[in-house]
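Try it yourself: sequence plus coenzyme A, in.
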Amino acid sequence: MTNLILVERDGPIQIVRINRPEKKNALTLAMYSAMADALVAGEADDGVAVHLLAGAGGDFSAGNDLNDFLTLTSLVDSPIARFLLALAGLAKPAVAAVKGAAVGIGSTMILHCDLAVAAVNSRFQFPFVNLGLVPEAASSQLLPGLAGHRRAAELLMLGEPFTAEKAEAIGLVNILVPPGEEEAVALDYARRLAARPRQALRQTKALLKREPEPVVERIKVEARLFEEALRSPELKQAVAAFYERKK
Ligand code: COA
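Structure, out:
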């Protein structure tokens, strides 16, 4: 186990903190492994309702350790892939608290989080093409889905750094905050999510991430889940609370 990844708990929120500030939180294979393990453990722990990804020091992550790239021979079977598949497969919501450098996988992992808060000093970059590489973490699909082809092409084909304002404008992050406040705001989001009925939240996330299908099919899928949810204790409680509110 590496201390370059810290796993912390704040009530029902599991915080996975990248802790290599002197290297701008660049990620080594051992760090990906530790993050994958933490996410898998958080998913299995009934006490955890929400995952939060954060960085120690002034940065979120400067991406893959560039030195590691030189010795990496297989990506498909690597800890990088294990981490990405664990992140992309999370059933519980994930929130990111971003600041400083968010480069490479430091940007693409945000695409897999449900909510993201960024300090205004964040600098994002998808630099793959400049390194002779190609997009990873499904960013070639998720980014155009988020920002449209033209803006995704600009970011993935030029690979230049871009500002927090731009990240907010294209929908990569939800909200910009002054530096130093990103984690408190992300925690606030996470706590608000953790206060929601868990089953409904999971099903909402699953629906949001479901492959596109004809609208009439989606109406039926939602209707089946909705029907089940009509029998949930949370609905009874919420309706009772509504009628009790003025008493
Ligand atoms: N891999 C390994 N080390 C990295 C790193 C990375 N991805 N990113 C930063 N570092 C290290 C630097 O080598 C430096 O180490 P040193 O102090 O031992 O020399 C330290 O972190 C600080 O980085 P530095 O470049 O001096 O900081 P900066 O503020 O001038 O620039 C960045 C910050 C993020 C813009 C710059 O470090 C950078 O471009 N990093 C590479 C990002 C990248 O290409 N990632 C891979 C994406 S696929």
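One thing you can check immediately is this: The chain has a mean pLDDT of 97.
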